[in-house]
Here is the input.
Amino acid sequence: GVTESSVENDPYPFILHDGRLKMAEDNMDVTTVTKTHIVDVEELEEEFGHLFERVFYVAANRGAKDITIREEYCELDNVLCIDYDDFAYTPDDSSLEDIAAIVERVKLGLEEKFPLLIDVDMDVDEAVKRVKLMEKATTEMADKSFKEHEPYFGIHGGHRNRDDNNNQQQKEKKGGRLGQNKASPQQKLSLVHIAPTYKVKNCAAQFCPYDQDQSVAIASMRRAREQSKKASVTLAASVFPEDGDAVPADFIRLGDLSRSTMSDYPNLPLKKKLPFINDIFDNLRSSSGFNSYDYIIYTNADIIVTEKFYDIVTAAIDSGYDAFTINRQTVAKGKASNHLYTALDLDDIYQLKGKVHPGSDCFVMKRSIFEKIDMGNLFLGYPPTANVLLVQAESLAVRYTMFASNELKATFHLGDDKSWHEKNDANLEYEVTNYENAYNDLHEVWTALCEFSPEYDTRRLNSLKYVGNNMSCSRLANKFYSVAGYDLAKEQREAAGGNQMALASPALAVTGTSSEVKTDSPIVFQFLVGLEGTGHHLHQKLYKGSPAHKRLKSYGLLDDISDLLKSLWNRESPSEGLWSATCAMSNEEKLWWKQENEGTDGEKLFNNLVGHLKSLDEKSRSKVEADEAMQPGDDLVIAVNSGSIYNQEAAPFLSYPLLHGPCRFLQYPILDIFYEACNAAGVRCQHALSFRDPYRVLKSTSMNRHFASRHVQLQTLHSMLSVIQGQMLSHSDRLVACWESDMGANGGASDLAKLFGWKNEAKFDGWYSKIFLEPLPLSEEDKSEITMEKQLEVYMNSMIKDMANIKATCRSQLLFNSPSAPQSFKSPKAAPALLPPRSIQTASNTNHASRATLLSKGEDVDELVPPRPDWLDSYIEYHRSSVEPDGNGGYRLKDGVPFVVYECTDNVKCGGIGDRINSMVLVLYLAMCSGRVLLINAPYPSPLQNFLNPNEVRWDATPPDLGEELQTLDIMDIRNHDLIVDQSIIGYRLGRCNGMPPRHTLKTIWKNQCMSGYFQRIDQIFPFPAEIPEEKLLRWSFWSLFKFSDAVLLRAEELKTSAKLPSDSSGHVSPYLGIHLRTGDRSMDIDNMGLKGPRARYRARQQREYLDCYRRFQQALPDTQIGYVASDSDTAKQKLNRWDSSIHFSEETNIFHVDESLRVAGAEALAGDDTSYQGSLDGWAELSVMVDAECIIMSWSMFSFAAHYIGGENRCGVYVGHCQEENVGNIPHEYSYETGRNPFTMIQ
Here is the structure.
């Protein structure tokens, strides 16, 4: 039953007072009752009806307060209406019997209205207890601030205690003068609104001379002008001479337009006649009345404005903004498909509930700003016109803002048609032309206004950090990079001579480079990483009672910690929190995952977090310096997500996942962002990990608190454990504690206690014993009940394994990070250089006849691949001694020799050619360190021996018949941290070696104890005490295992001939540049990765970047003036050739993916030996062609990287994203790339 203690200790409210339902969806699974002031059942049903099979509503009619529900709603079978007087009582005059009678009356009313509740046990006595506890809470809250909430019943402070000062400020804000732009009462603000109207051919009768969108938009502008009380409004348009009818009689007709895309770009397809926006602006600027306008409004011709639009604009100006944009709401085009809205339907349109839209199509700016706008030769209808205008408006303004769609609700658009968004070559030509204009004509404009960081975020290919005070520059940079391939940050670095730029930034801004971390600072920000249900509530109590929390409370810094938390997770305004923003629209839109959230400004949120970290660090250090009780060397830990700051209706524990609702699966912390912010702020940060018995986790979260059904919860927790594992591996050096919350003080709680300032261990143990209740052991019956009579045991077993791996990883990392760990464990002793330094050769010194042939035949290989080291020769000798001829021309493994088999069959996905090579060269070292012979069985889709032959080792040897199926060894799963293999088992089949969850890489294998054990066994010093030379290891491994088959080498020469690559007098193909341009699986009609086209389009749009890189190489290598492009897209190859005829390609290649092409729907008809063989052969042959290239321009693909590293040492190659002049002119380069990195990492 409910008691006062349970009310105090329960972390979730019994009743949530949520007046406007801002939080209801997130809390319906948590709270027992949600109270709201909304009495519109239709609105409630629309918002929540789709979430449940049936929703029931209980409404209180309170006539005295004029709060009633419509009578027709009360007639519905899922709505119960109760008069307020039927359940109200006066505490001083009512006995328990009186309250019980009221409860019984309400109970009967519920059962009568909702018959399915008859079988529900509604305990009247328990309800009376709750009412009395609520009564007590109400009394206690009466004298508190209205903003305070009692956590269990959600009761707020007394109404009389509202913030009177704040109310007065609001009154002043409405009536006072807050900005410098407010017009005097005698003088209205003068606005001119210009829109690019145009005449429509073959227009519908009810809309002529316009289309529907323009017709309604123009009518709305006229109506808003008539309704305006605060501004004098002029409407204006500038059109082509033949479009004079498109200017309404009450608009000012500016000068006519004299040029268009048709006149200036006659070769563009579709023959569209589009105006240049600067011509329209110039016609306004040169008009006779221009100097009389205070502000200029520019909207697209199809933007509908609300009837109060100009007064809304005036109010924003009065608030001090000298430039701003207003984002539109997208509404339906009509009441039905056969009833389109017209100008007569404006009242109906204004009542529509629109969808948010992220684009900018309504600009308002002061005349002095508009006078400086330069739009060059950008034309309307295609990007990046709006982005370029936005950059200038925001940069030139003293005070700028963007009003989101649902903020002012001032503009509308009928439908969401985007003719320019239709992805075809014709539209692409217009878009590319406009980007070229923006780049060439306005280069000086945006470089003067924007300053970009000269450093890249190498983990985010298209995310550029900006420096300065506006976000539009960052958006423009991302647009230029992701769509047109221009990299603005690179250019600024090149313009600065490659030197870092010292740039000023606002107080809460990030400069794009990490600040110096104050390692001597006593302030440490600590984050608890853990699944929900792994002890966050206990951690809350542990920290709240700690010396650290008490010290922070005495310093008066709890509100600052609250603000820091909200910058990460903001429950009330999700778009304002870095991690909550993803799910900000999940309570507003039915298809929220398809809606862009224009209110999310990631860079601004990141800067906000950095600012809070800096501020809190500085305030805390100041307090600590003045605190005589703090001893030198003591740290003050701020437990960021301890939940001790109760500021968001629920403790913000930030667990994995967090809270509820339809977006639950995406609600988890991103530790990488947290540490990025820490680095940028220059503060110390670290994390601890919590874990717990998986059965108890499931019971706590699904049975006790009903976060999700057990089946769904197990899958969710499995996913979250993978996320946690990946984040731990990325930040292993930041781990400070591993805490098993079920295990008492010895489970890691004492380690947390030391971090939190406890110095007396005995005192802590005594205190902790009061808050920690040791759980009873779980019996087999308990476990069976938790897993639904073992129906879910298979999922639970997987979670148990995942949790065990997390624990092992945590403890291993903690040992590594411990100051007491042996130094040899952290950094092996230095070894002499493995090889003498080699003189760096330029690409022109290599034999270009056929590099792949030379390597495969073993001719002059020392010039291309350095000699193998002794330790690798030792393994090769072991492998050779372990096989013997089988009498049939092949080889077999000797009896008793331990082995491991890498398989690639139709039962498992192995990836493309590059992924397969990467996997096979990795497992050579796995076999080496574990003392096993590596065998390869790869018959899918065509046997590997058709394309790669054994070189130094007989990996194709037949394993012995062990009389049973080989066990599968999932050792490549990186969660199997220790790479331990049961030596009693002779033969293993390797599990999947690529894909998700993350797999072991060369670095993790070579840094593992398994590898150090190998060198101990062969009595050699570990050769790589510092950096692991991945590029050498990959090259050695490949050529030890493989050589190209004659069929591949012959086919490669055929492709070169087919591509018409020129030859020299001796018949050798002239030196050529290799270009590998991957557009994505979609181009091969493969959709297995969920790619719906944007990824393929994104890469297709980068083709000009490949062309630019190719031409830079032509300048750097005057003897190499031709190219060969290999691609998974025929269209991409043709386009590069059309742009530059010196780029050749073969029209005879089969576009075929060795892993996926035969798995897609409908591929059964293609399956066959010929298709599999020929498609695979062409793929391997093009790899050989790339190996033979003088230099390679690489895409984001393992195929590119494979060609680069197996092509020999001192290889000339550049990832297309690194193709600056200094890199092209300074070859060769080495790259380190393994699955999971993004993009390539240049290491030399």
Notes: The mean pLDDT is 78. The chain is about 40% helix and 10% strand. Residues 793-817 form the longest helix (25 residues).
